[in-house]
Amino acid sequence: MAMNRHRAPAQDDGRRSGVGSAADVATADGATADGSVADGAAVRLFHSLSDPVRLRIIRLLSDGERRVVELTRELNLAQSTVSGHLACLRSAGLVDAHPHGRSTFYALAKPELWELLAAAERILDADGSAGALCPERHRPEPAAACGVTVRGCVLSGQGRP
Fold it and tell me: Whole-model pTM?
């Protein structure tokens, strides 16, 4: 007598069981459900920064371009895993790839990324969750106070220190 093994369908209680991709929220053209292409680009950007391995890849690439084989060795991860993370970073426009002979080299594409990571550090620091996201050599210079008093602006002396 053959046993029939069927799994009962999972109950959908509104929670997601895994990490979704930006494609879950944005359409193929990058637009979100309400049609905003800019929101879709922002979703891809912040999704690409939401994984600790991708943040490590960004920090490694801050030292210069690397091949996948070098990243797999430094991260101690499978080639397919590293390639998947690089694809995510490329789709967000943060990493460029260029072939050189039989190898492909990956490099950071946006120097503005350091400003974003430094701002994220300040936000985390304000909440007591300090973390080093931006390598010291890539930290943007602190902005000078503009002289205009703006409520909430740390630089004008009206915000939190």
Answer: 0.63
